[in-house]
Write a structure and sequence with these properties.
single chain, about 80 residues, alpha+beta, two-stranded antiparallel ribbon, 4 strands, globular
């Protein structure tokens, strides 16, 4: 069986009320989208640590821990 997926990704940010807005600067590159044999979706992307975009977080240890917590159990 062949299953096709369409992935639409955009760089977004939230306002004070938590509403999403598309960022004017699309500061990421989508590298890979893959569905594992277990059905999990893997999305890999990269961007600069500091994009000089006021709507982007600087990537530092706290952001990396947060991202890991989304997909990993507590180590």
């Amino acid at each position: 069986m062949i299953v096709l997926y369409a992935i639409y990704a955009q760089d977004t940010h939230t306002d004070g009320a938590g509403l999403l807005s598309v960022d004017h600067h699309q500061d990421y590159v989508l590298d890979l989208v893959h569905v594992t044999s277990a059905g999990s979706l893997v999305v890999e992307f990269h961007r600069l640590y500091d994009t000089c975009d006021t709507d982007d977080y600087l990537i530092d240890v706290s952001i990396i821990r947060y991202c890991n917590s989304l997909v990993c159990s507590d180590r």
